[in-house]
Amino acid sequence: MTAIARREEQLWSRCAGCASLLYRKRLRRNLDVCPECGEHARLGAPERLRQLVDPGSLRPLSDLLPEADPIDFVDVLPYPHRLTAARASTGLAEAVVCATATIGGHPVAMAVMDFRFLGGSLGCAVGELITRTAERALDDRIPLVLVTASGGARMQEGALSLMQMATVSQAIAALREAGLLTVSVLTDPTYGGVAASFATNTDLVLAESGARMGFAGPRVIRQVTGRALPEGFQTADFLLRHGQVDMVVQRRSLRGRLTALLAATRAGRAARAGHPPVPRQEPAPHRERLADDGAAPARPADPAAAVAPSPTSEAGQTTAVRDAWDTVRMARHPARPTTLDYLDSVFDGFVELHGDRLGGDCPAIVGGVARLAGRHVMVIGHQKGHTTAELVARNFGMASPAGHRKALRLMRLAARLGLPVVTLVDTPGADPGVSAEEQGQAAAIAENILTLTVLPTPVLAVITGEGGSGGALALAVADRVLMLENAVYSVISPEGCAAILWPDRSAAPQAARALRLTAPDLCRLGVVDEVVPEPSAAAHGDPAETAHRLRAALLANLLPLLDVPPAMLVRLRRQRFRRFGTTRGVNRAGVR
After folding, report:
1. What count of other Cβ atoms lies within 10 Å of the Cβ of residue 281?
2. Is 510:548 a contact under the CB 8 Å cutoff?
3. Helix, strand or coil for residue 217?
């Protein structure tokens, strides 16, 4: 190609919507929106900021973070090589640009994601940068505006990337408690862990025209369901029709809409200025303490010790280390005990509660009141089944939005009644079906995560089998996270990871090893606080002994939490997940 031909090519652009050949300068003057068909081209973060903020007002926030490869991930390329290539091609340090600025004269803190950088994926650095931006908004008492563009959590950082959903969500919760506005602007595309956390748990959710958003991507849904997708599925107009966004906004109107919303918020705060707010009171519910068949431990001298990671959390690991792929197969064994099995063997007097009170009762989530050594608790868990008929009836433990909302209702009920919450996690992931997306799967998961970060009652989670992605995290934002020895917990299934990063799905065993998804790995990374050892025959080989060990571990971890004041519980729970914002303190071997 001659220099003249290359220059001519640079002057023109072909629209992805209508294939019209457009003069690039004209397209840029039209904010990269096709004047023929209205197709909104994707924008990089720097250009997005240029379009939204007042000229001269942008003040970038530091993006300096230590180099991170927390699990030494390698597929066909080492992860650091992918990072280097993304930085070279985009000129960015990471997949988000953070700043303070003004929009229409109103000060804001902003985090704008860039899909060009590894698909806008959410990793430890991105989570840390967005969290810092939210904390800056809290310090400055200004609104937070997030512009999302992401394929989801970053596979190359394993479960640590999954933790970012909780880390950022609790920063959003702090702004909500302070009465500060949070706004997310969904741009194309916004999927996975980003959609199921901070993209949808803000006060206001705007969608740019043409944006697509969902928990599961269209390709995954087609593969799982074998169904053709409805016309316009997961598009901004689809989201508006299904009540999942506040408004759909053309790009040329976006700055004006944000200005109007920020002005209304500022006016409301000014009106309240002459009326000091009533101090927020942390609820302090009375916890039922019934007669026990064993003495309760003494109140800790330091309540923080009740929720701090135990220095002996791996003491029960006495068996030889099993290959990660073998552990995945063990976790999926059809005879492995289910939540209902544990409710019968570990707990007493279980009374199941049904329904989300909005029109659904998802069979993949079971929950209700039970007793643990004489103490009443709220138990919520995923339910799979053992036979094909049971698995189908329970949707293989994949919860629908109704299931997540049922769990949310029971969590809030437990807090009002002063009951501790125990969750049992065993799911390949949330329901990826068309109806789940229509009913707001991403927002349902996001609301669970947000609520658990502020729930004023003890929360104890156990990964009993499969802990798959956001569907698992929706029940696992807890004061203490336990994991059975042959369970797995991951940001994505090994098969899914292999299909994306390796030539084919046959590399699933390699992906399982790279993801660091076993209990010993996750205990070393600090994602899990304690590994519960299984009998030599595994949980399905000796369910009675497994139940005995799980019951002992639950009591040992729950009883100290009962003496921690609710406000401190919430504060320490937030600190637990805040440390996942970076990989500080984790060396390349994953040891703190």
Report:
1. 7
2. no
3. coil
Block residue for tokens 């800056």: 136
Least confident residue range of 232-246, 287-301, 363-377, 497-511: 287-301
The string over 98-125, giving b where at least 16 C-beta atoms fall within 10 Å of a residue's C-beta and e elsewhere, is bbbbbbbebbbbbbbbbbbbbbbbbbbb
Angle at 218 between CA 214 and CA 223, to 5 degrees: 130
Rounded (5°) CA angle 509-511-517: 95
54: DSSP letter: P
**Cα separation, 493 vs 272, whole angstroms:** 49
Rounded CA-CA distance 77/71 in Å is 14
End-to-end CA distance of the chain: 54
What pLDDT shows up at residue 10?
Answer: 62
**Is-contact 425 404, C-beta < 8 A?**
no
- In terms of Cα–Cα distance, which of 79, 58, 178, 174 is closest to 125? 79
Report yes or no: 153 and 491 within 8 Å, Cβ to Cβ. Answer: yes
Bridge partner list, 23: 12
Distance (Å, whole) CA 158 – CA 515 = 5
The first and second tokens of residue 38, run together, are: 């209205």
Residue 364 near residue 404, CB atoms below 8 Å = no
Supply the angle between the helices 508-515 and 324-331 in degrees, to the nearest 10. 100
Could you report the per-residue pLDDT of 449-479, keeping only the tens digit for each?
Answer: 999 999 999 999 999 999 999 999 999 999 9
Q: Which residues pair with 370 in a beta bridge?
A: 377
Residues 478, 451 contacting (CB under 8 angstroms): no
Rounded CA-CA distance 202/146 in Å is 9
Contact at 8 Å (CB) between 539 and 337?
yes
DSSP string, 489-547: EESS-HHHHHHHHSSSGGGHHHHHHHHT-BHHHHHHHTS-SEEEPPPTTHHHH-HHHHH
For 287-328, the pLDDT digits (tens) are: 333 333 333 444 444 556 666 655 444 434 444 568 999 999
**Structural contact between residues 213 and 190, judged by C-beta atoms closer than 8 angstroms:** yes
- 310 C-beta neighbours (distance < 10 Å), count: 13
3-state secondary structure 322-390: CCHHHHHHHHCCCCCCCHHHHHHHCCEEEEECCCCCCCCCCCCEEEEEEEECCEEEEEEEECCCCCHHH
Spatial CB neighbours of 393, under 8 Å, sequence gap ≥ 6: 363, 385
Give the residue-averaged pLDDT of 218-230.
Answer: 83
